[in-house]
Design goal:
- The protein is α/β, with parallel strands linked by helices.
- It has four domains: about 20-95, N-terminal domain of TfIIb (Single Sheet), CATH 2.20.25.90; about 100-175 and about 370-545, Rossmann fold; about 175-365, Dimethylsulfoxide Reductase, domain 2 (3-Layer(aba) Sandwich); about 625-739, Barwin-like endoglucanases (Beta Barrel).
- It contains 28 helices and 26 strands.
- A seven-stranded mixed beta sheet has the order 5-4-16-15-14-6-7, covered by helices on one side. A six-stranded mixed β-barrel has the order 21-25-22-24-23-26. Strands 10-9-8-12-13 form a five-stranded parallel beta sheet.
- Strand 6 (about 140-145), helix 4 (about 150-160) and strand 7 form a beta-alpha-beta unit.
- Helix 4 (about 150-160) crosses helix 23 (about 535-550) and helix 5 crosses helix 16 (about 340-350).
- The structure holds iron/sulfur cluster (SF4).
- Iron/sulfur cluster binds near residues 47, 50 and 52.
Length: about 750
């Protein structure tokens, strides 16, 4: 490896990639103390768990973070934080951190520590070998919504422009792909229109498949601050914590949401609640939509959703008479078999009632991960950098110019989506896989199939904070990564706000920031020259600015990290021309929503009404598997596969240690299942054992298991929304019996 040439990745690095170089201060990050900050200070940065993007004040002593508190000045959380935020530093000190690269010994099968130089040698030799034997596109990567925007853009550019790869996706496919596609098709760009102030300004809030009490607790706190005594309508099969706090809960049958939403549109048209002027001036396709929903009568909607007519009518009444109605959705919609059209049915309601572009309104998707929005705009996986399109020559040219690379370097075709990459492993088209900061072996739908398939790979690399994740344990090579708080960069939250992550701790051992790992790989691969401008996350941020120029997500007016820091985060868009005309965002522009002028990002400036006939679910219940399995978030103390949250003793006390299943009392009685007894839940794919929580929060015929327990995705069925290719985690058929 010491002979591998590197093309002066950065100007000062002109020699071979050696251990000394890897360790040099100011080089890739090893051995550095926290930079930029005074040793004993308090600094504000955004939380690295969910998409709310709360500001946390981190307190340093001798250059290392020792504690944190919620920032009372930050415009997002106003001094509040959920349990995960308060415990954000704890997972970084876990004993199972990956502290050195680990390579699987072919003879013994064990993972053994190696130097970074050896790790890079393996990475390059084995991936290049696969490409030589099976073609350039036989390697793929799966990334995450948990790393910084600059890192996402770096890995996407490195893989596609430097390494010659094509197929790349991220775990945002599992949470936000639907919202991305729905907005893009309806508004012309992936543009969540709202700002969190809308939670406080609505007089009617409609939550569809969203449980912010648990999933986004600080957003829920913003709802509680609403001074207008708002009506809160929840559409959810479960009596979730949010549904319990609603003024109206429509406990609809699972996956009847699309029919119900069309029924609501029908009823609103029938009672003359359409804002004709807005529809005529700013939208396209309403007449066809009105004709389409004519057959979705209230009777049909109520029958499909198994709802009392008076609840349906009350919902119509509240939406029709509300002055400022906001519609909010999240995974209950996004993770469905017809998710994109369901999201667009919500968008259609907002458009036809003129509830968009004004305070307290909007068709608002709540994002999942802390940087899902960064992934949607800048990951260069399914969309070209800056929310552009790989298949458009003009877009490829613009990006090539901004990056100073030949246009031919940019692939003219789209990547496969996550599920297609998995299928590619099965067919033998994908032989090498690089997984970055995600735990696919736990989280991917029908996980048994995924875990069988990864055994077919010639080379599996996992880049993560921990060497113990379900996925890392299957790797040939583990690259140890620094976590949130051990590196710098930006995250973009649900309301499009750029926030800063700062380096307030040293990563343990030889762990490096993801950014530094990508620099190393570029150097080792031999494409360092292409990335010579990517000297640091902040230098990369300047590249992102160029890439955003002229796009709806234009951020050319954000000067630098300091500017973001001073402003308490800055929402996109913030163009250079806006900065020149208005000065910095300041208090007047701290909370900005989109479409205030009624112009959308489509070529004619009009939002589109999009719709389709509802389709049956992929795996309906039957006599053998008579229950519908619902999955979702369990508590606000858990995050996804518990990789980080399980490291905190405090957080562990806030949720049941073992897998549990919620079952309705009528079903429990019929099946002779006692509260807190052990039960077996089986699907056609596998079984698991769980503790029975007998509760009316689920309807008869349904069971609910939180997604955080590793066994749940043994049961789920791999079906996908045809537009977004997002997995349908919210419906499959199971049976349940005493264990
Ligand atoms: S709500 Fe989300 S961003 Fe805020 S503290 Fe909790 S996990 Fe962090």
């Amino acid at each position: 490896m010491s002979q591998l040439p590197i093309n002066s990745l950065l100007r000062q690095w002109t020699g071979p990639l050696t251990e000394d170089l890897v360790r040099a201060p100011g080089s890739f990050g090893l051995g550095q103390v926290p930079t930029r900050l005074k040793p004993d200070t308090t600094t504000t940065m955004v939380c690295g768990f969910c998409s709310t993007g709360c500001g946390l004040n981190v307190h340093l002593k001798d250059g290392q973070a020792v504690n944190l508190t919620a920032d009372p000045e930050y415009p997002v959380n106003l001094g509040m934080a959920c349990p995960k935020g308060w415990e954000a530093l704890t997972p970084l000190a876990a004993p199972d951190r990956a502290t050195a690269p680990l390579l699987r010994n072919a003879a013994t099968g064990t993972l053994e520590p190696v130097s970074w130089v050896r790790a890079m040698n393996e990475f390059v030799t084995r991936f290049k070998g696969i490409q030589e034997r099976h073609g350039k596109h036989s390697i793929a990567y799966l990334s995450t919504g948990q790393i910084c925007t600059e890192e996402m853009a770096f890995v996407g550019s490195l893989f596609k422009f430097g390494m010659g790869g094509l197929h790349a996706d991220s775990n945002t496919r599992q949470c936000m792909a639907t919202a991305h596609v729905a907005y893009k098709q309806s508004f012309g760009f992936d543009a969540p229109p709202y700002t969190y102030a809308d939670f406080e300004e609505s007089d009617v809030l409609v939550f569809v498949g969203a449980n912010p009490c648990i999933a986004h607790p600080i957003m829920w706190q913003r709802v509680l601050r609403n001074p207008h005594r708002p009506e809160i309508i929840v559409l959810d099969p479960r009596r979730t914590e949010t549904a319990m706090n609603a003024t109206l809960h429509l406990s609809l049958a699972p996956k009847s949401d699309l029919t119900l939403l069309y029924g609501l549109a029908h009823a609103l048209i029938a009672r003359g609640a359409v804002k004709r002027e807005f529809v005529e001036d700013h939208t396209k396709g309403f007449e066809a939509f009105a004709q389409f929903v004519a057959e979705f009568t209230p009777e049909r909607a109520c029958e499909a959703a198994k709802l009392p007519r008076e609840d349906f009518d009350r919902c119509v009444e509240l939406i029709a008479t509300g002055k400022r109605v906001s519609f909010w959705w999240t995974m209950g919609v996004n993770q469905g078999h017809e998710a994109t059209r369901t999201a667009q049915a919500i968008i259609n309601l907002a458009l036809m009632t003129g509830n968009i572009g004004r305070p307290g309104t909007g068709a608002n998707s709540i994002t999942g991960q802390c940087n899902a929005m960064g992934s949607r705009l800048f990951a260069n996986a399914t969309s070209l950098l800056g929310g552009r399109d790989f298949t458009k020559a003009e877009d490829r040219q613009t990006v090539a110019q901004a990056l100073g690379i030949p246009t031919e370097t940019i692939p003219a075709q789209n990547s496969w989506a996550y599920d297609q990459i998995v299928d590619g492993i099965e067919s033998g088209a994908i032989k090498g896989l690089w997984i970055i900061a995600t735990n696919s072996s736990h989280s991917w739908i029908h996980q048994g199939r995924f875990n069988d398939l990864v055994k077919k790979l010639d080379f599996l690399v996992v880049q993560d904070l921990y060497h113990t994740t379900d996925t890392a344990q299957r790797a040939h090579l583990i690259l140890p990564a620094a976590g949130w708080g051990e590196k710098e960069g930006t995250l973009i939250n649900s309301e499009r706000r750029f926030g800063l992550v700062k380096k307030v701790l040293r990563a343990p051992g030889e762990a490096l920031s993801d950014f530094a790992i990508f620099q190393l790989i570029a150097a080792a691969w031999g494409c360092g020259d292409m990335f010579r401008e990517w000297r640091s996350p902040e230098a990369a941020f300047q590249i992102l600015k160029r890439l955003s120029a002229g796009q709806p997500c234009d951020i050319t007016g954000i000067r630098d990290y300091r500017h973001i820091d001073q402003e308490g985060g800055i929402q996109w868009p913030w163009a250079e021309s806006t900065q020149a005309a208005e000065g910095s965002p300041g208090p007047d522009h701290r909370e900005r929503r989109l479409f205030t002028d009624g112009r959308f990002y489509t070529p004619d400036g009009r939002a589109k009404f999009l719709f389709d006939q509802p389709r049956p679910v992929a795996e309906p219940t039957d006599a053998a598997f008579p229950f519908t399995l619902l999955t979702g978030r369990g508590t606000s103390a858990q995050w996804h596969t518990n990789t980080r949250t399980a490291k905190s003793e405090i957080l562990r006390k806030l949720y049941p240690a073992d897998c549990y299943v919620e079952i309705h009392p009528d079903d429990a009685r019929r099946l002779d299942i006692a509260p807190h007894s052990q039960v077996t839940v089986s699907s056609r794919r596998a079984s698991l054992t769980a503790t029975a929580f007998v509760t009316p929060t689920v309807q008869p015929g349904q069971v609910f298991i939180p997604m955080h327990y590793d066994a749940v995705n043994r049961l789920t069925f791999g079906s996908f929304d045809p537009h977004s290719r997002q997995p349908s985690y919210k419906h499959c058929a199971v049976k349940i019996s005493p264990a």
